[in-house]
Amino acid sequence: MSEFEGVITRGAATTAEEEYRERALLVGVERPGQKWGLQSSLDELERLVDTAGAYVVARTSQRLESPNPRTFIGSGKAEEVADLCRSYAADLVVFDDELSPSQQSNLEKIVPRDVKVIDRTALILDIFALHATSKEGTLQVRLAQNQYLYPRLRGMWAHLASNRMGGGVGSRFGEGESQLEVDRRMVRKRITSIKKELEHLSQVRALQRESRYASGMYKVALAGYTNAGKSSLLNCLTDAGVLSYDKLFATLDSTTRKLALPEGREITLTDTVGFIQKLPTTLVEAFKSTLDEINGADLILHVIDASSEEFEDQISAVDDVLQQINAQAILKLMVFNKCDLLDDETLHGLQKRFPEALFVSAHTRWGIDDLLQRIAQVASSSEQRMTVVIPYAQGSLAALAHERCRIVSETYEEDGTHLTLYCAPSLASQFAPYQQ
Fold first, then answer.
1. Residue 135 pairs with which residues in a beta bridge?
2. What are the tens digits of pLDDT across the range 230-241?
């Protein structure tokens, strides 16, 4: 085993606001074959901590062949972490990887008693709890939290008894102080109850999706790394008015809006929760009904932050999650957003490397017209050409043709409305009885 010491300090709080924020120490481990570089992963962890409302005062790292089964990091490094907590008056220690219940419990015995020890998964769950607004989003977060809590319950008793969960980052676990009275049976009961509520909401969401599918509308889903600008792009295209902040996981709930293409036909555009590297499996499962919006799409717009130095790793992380939810086979279009932040040379380099991608700025609307044209082209490629005569008594079907299809020609004859049109495969059966 070999290790290296890499302590990076952030110094004292620089603003009055930071004086009242919790002080966090980050701990990362570099292992052979890991996908993301250690420093870029810790940079992202620091942004997550900031999003959760804390302030990073220092970070330290270690190179290991494999995690220590007792404390994840080596025993000497664990003592060093405890010393750093005292030196920088840290309120919490955040590990960049998921800790086992026993590792977390052992670490809590080493650090000062008033210091919380959490891992990346707990931090992300905490942020989700902070940002969940809808009933379904809140339930999904509570389910993931309880599934995370269940195997850690024994350690959590001591954790709570020592008042480590008195508030702040890592403590927004649904019922808060009532966690003091929970036991395994109660957590299992809570998980079952939440799953039942989510199943009901999932059925409602499924009915809404079926209604959209039956309408024959072409369905486009926005997917991408968190903070790539999906909500900003949705707002730019549809004036949706969706919350959009420069924060990780600013929005959790999926939002669907209608979008009129240049040719006049309407499609649906759905924004979904952002992805991230090391996205907890419990979150993927808990947000299954939300992520199903992606599975039901005809086209996925993979939104990429062109200004990020880690955009290639972020692309890989998104592809990994799409594979987890079995959406990898859906037609996908790469859309590089935030191009207004690039210089000409960098932009031209990206355009040369990714000739099939679209390059836009949701902030300035640069490239938006090209994006709409490409969506229209892709949507049209799957359509079926039909020539039909619709009786005048079937006026609603003629209206459907104008609303959902591309009309090539239209004449009015004695026997009805003669149309040559392109329609989605899902609509073909409705026009088939009148086909010539």
1. none
2. 989 998 998 866
